[in-house]
Specification:
Shape: globular
Bound molecules: adenosine-5'-diphosphate, magnesium ion
Number of helices: 23
CATH class of one domain: Alpha Beta
Number of strands: 21
CATH superfamily of one domain: P-loop containing nucleotide triphosphate hydrolases
Distance between the termini: 44 Å
CATH topology of one domain: Rossmann fold
């Protein structure tokens, strides 16, 4: 008979959902906070707002009928009385709370002298015995009761291997720290536990940061052990030709990052570099120069962008710059997009396989299985945060044949704040363009209530009369593309009416690639005055003549997203503006985080400052998104608060890898388990 597979209970499933599989995972699942059930407080000593535990006898119990049935229970602890109020209750409640019962009650006391109350307090029969330690409250999820989780954690703690991995003895051993945090002694101050300043917490945070540093450093070293084609810069090739043909001179910052990248490309180890620079700082030409170095060395380069429009725009720009130079050398540029005809696609694939296409530009299509490069040496990924780890891995696999890896250049307009760079991206080399091309005037940003929409439309008319163009971005409603579309369509009709004689275009996510292309072409060529769009113009679109951007329902956008959108204007010499239209819906005012975002937008145009504030508003978890970064997020440590622990971990990690490789491996395994693999992408 085939063995029956043991069924997972719902609680076990919930445990797994939280990533709690091994005993050590449970042991490292630390309390969110604690409840003090060790003490009984006299009712007469309580004040309005105190959360307390009392021991009392039930002296009255009644159900008050009405639209909201309530169970009202009066208790007396000998010093005073208190009314317990329950809006939802079962017959079992009534039984346990029958007059005469002796109970312990925990909750927040409301009211004082005139009569104390507790709303939905916790209660249990009073056995006369009090717990001796604070009661931990763990982070949990639906279907996983605290009581079950507590038992599971204790079992995990008993079974886990907690032998030390730190090479030098610490004041608090890991075992002592965990024992303490899972059941702290009653005399410990709740405050020290909850702000995580207690030495036991410090020990755990240090451990966590060390695991992160070790795994990143190990990934970096592993990569340093890999081989990549050397791409030395040569004179008189495509690169020099491009530099000579450019209609502008590179900024100092561009020159610096170009040199950093060229130095990497000249080495036989794969480059793993992030090029960050604010929107409009000129990353494309840097990518083109890197590609040129690669092509001059006789290899192929791939450039991948997250959207069809953006990839297409790169293709046009790069073709402008590079096609004549390549043609003179018998080579060319291939295009791979989603909406391509089969025949065209086959032709492009053949050019890539033969090596005639020295540069391949496209969307995700670039990493599909059927794409065979003859000799790929450099992959450039624009807006890298839009791609997942799997896609980066797929690109790397494209050069697998020679036992070599391609060089990787990732570009991003969302700069990584320094603290994050030191922790989450410790294995990445970073180049920063910290200077905008000359002649740009900063974009003026206004936050305007939806009620003044008419004024905004009038302003659009003025811009158009000056020969400028305008973007109007419509609200993003994540759950429903259909509603997005209704909004955008209505706005399109409204603006077409209000601006007779002006070509107003509409661009949204559901259009076919060819339709999008046609609309974009009209706007790029200056024939279309206003472009109404859902967020498809978010990244990279470059139309220097556009000088006004209106963002409708700006309160619904994230800060980085707003900043990206705003970067579409102010790309030419004309003074540009961004209007953030907001609405509070039925509420009297905007929520706090929405207000903080709009305020940040109005106050600064500096991408680094925006990123810093975004991090502050959202926290690193959301800022990075675990899937995109591939880096495990910190659960306990706080990068700002625990800067000294981070410094300690950064200092220890390389020594530990050199001198205690086995301890280092055990440490990473303990903290990250299977996740460590992910970091290599
Ligand atoms: P991003 O960094 O946002 O990708 P782009 O590469 O699209 O920026 O560049 C924005 C605009 O600035 C483009 O029109 C580009 O041609 C132009 N540009 C880039 N570098 C310079 C420069 N050094 N001087 C003047 N214009 C530049
Ligand atoms: Mg760009």
């Amino acid at each position: 008979m085939p063995a029956e597979r043991p069924r997972e209970s719902p609680a076990q499933r919930a445990l797994h959902k939280l990533g709690l599989r091994r005993p050590i995972d449970l042991a490292l699942h630390l309390p969110l906070r604690y409840e003090d059930e060790t003490r009984i407080v006299r009712l007469a000593d309580t004040h309005d707002g105190d959360t307390v535990q009392i021991a009392a006898a039930v002296v009255g119990s009644e159900i008050r009928p009405g639209p909201r049935r309530q169970l009202l229970v009066t208790v007396d602890d000998g010093t005073d009385r208190c009314l317990l109020r329950f809006f939802s209750f079962y017959p079992s409640h009534q039984k346990s709370l029958a007059p005469g019962a002796r109970i312990r009650v925990r909750g927040e006391v409301r009211g004082g002298f005139a009569g104390r109350q507790m709303l939905h307090p916790q209660f249990r029969p009073d056995t006369g015995e009090l717990p001796t330690a604070l009661t931990p409250v763990y982070p949990t999820t639906a279907g996983l009761p605290q009581s079950y989780l507590r038992k599971a954690v204790l079992a995990g703690l008993a079974r886990a291997d907690l032998s030390e991995t730190l090479p030098t003895p610490q004041a608090w051993s890991l075992r002592a720290a965990l024992d303490f945090l899972h059941h702290p002694a009653p005399e410990v101050s709740l405050a020290a536990l909850e702000d995580r300043s207690h030495p036991a917490w410090q020990r755990l945070k240090a451990e966590e940061l060390l695991a992160q540093q070790l795994s990143q450093l190990a990934a970096k070293r592993e990569r340093d052990g890999l081989r990549a084609p050397r791409l030395p810069a040569t004179a008189g090739g495509v690169r020099d030709g491009l530099l000579a043909a450019l209609p502008f001179a590179l900024t100092g910052a561009q020159q610096r990052v170009v040199a950093e990248i060229a130095a990497d490309l000249g080495r036989p180890q794969p480059m793993h570099r992030l090029l960050q620079g604010d929107v409009g700082s000129g990353k494309t030409v840097v990518a083109a120069l890197a590609a040129a170095v690669c092509m001059d060395a006789g290899w192929q380069c791939a450039l991948m962008a997250p959207t069809e429009i953006l990839a297409e725009q790169h293709f046009r720009k790069l073709a402008d710059w590079l096609a004549p130079l390549l043609a003179a050398r018998g080579r060319g540029i291939a295009w791979l997009g989603g909406g391509q005809k089969k025949k065209d696609r086959e032709a492009q694939l053949a050019r890539i396989a033969s090596g005639e296409a020295a540069l391949v530009v496209g969307t995700h299509a670039v990493i599909q299985d059927r794409v065979q490069f003859q000799r790929l040496a450099l992959a450039v990924i624009d807006e890298q945060h839009r791609f997942g780890v799997a896609q980066r891995l797929a690109l790397r696999a494209k050069l697998a044949h020679a036992g070599q890896e391609p060089h990787l250049l990732m570009m991003s307009a969302t700069p990584i704040p320094r603290t994050l760079a030191m922790s989450y991206y410790a294995d990445l080399d970073v180049s920063t363009i910290d200077e905008l091309p000359p002649g740009r005037t900063p974009v003026v940003t206004r936050v305007v209530h939806e009620g003044r929409r008419d004024e905004v439309v009038a302003r659009i008319g003025e811009q158009l009369r000056e020969g400028r163009q305008v973007y109007w971005v419509c609200p993003l409603i994540e759950e429903s593309e259909a509603i997005d579309l209704v909004n955008a369509t209505a706005t399109h009709a409204e603006l077409s009416d209000a601006l007779p004689g002006v070509l107003v275009g509409l661009l949204h996510a559901r259009m076919l690639p060819a339709e999008k292309k046609a609309v974009m072409a009209l706007f790029t060529e200056g024939l279309m005055g206003v472009l109404v769009s859902t967020t498809v113009i978010e990244v990279g679109v470059d139309v220097p003549n556009a000088s006004l951007m209106v963002i409708e329902h700006a309160e619904r956008f994230g800060l980085s997203q707003l900043h990206q959108l705003r970067g579409r204007v102010g790309r030419g010499a004309a003074a540009s503006a961004c209007v953030l239209l907001y609405s509070t819906g039925d509420a009297p005012r905007l929520g706090e985080t929405a207000r903080a975002r709009l305020k940040a937008m109005a106050e600064t145009t500096d991408g680094f400052e925006i990123a810093r504030r975004d991090l502050e508003i959202r926290g690193p978890g959301e800022f990075l998104g675990e899937r995109q970064s591939g880096a495990p997020l910190l659960r306990f440590a706080d990068l700002e608060e625990d800067a000294d622990l981070l410094a300690w971990a950064r200092e220890l990690a390389p020594r530990m890898l050199d001198e205690h490789p086995l301890l280092a491996q055990r440490h990473v395994q303990r903290w990250l388990g299977g996740k460590a693999e992910f970091l290599k992408a």
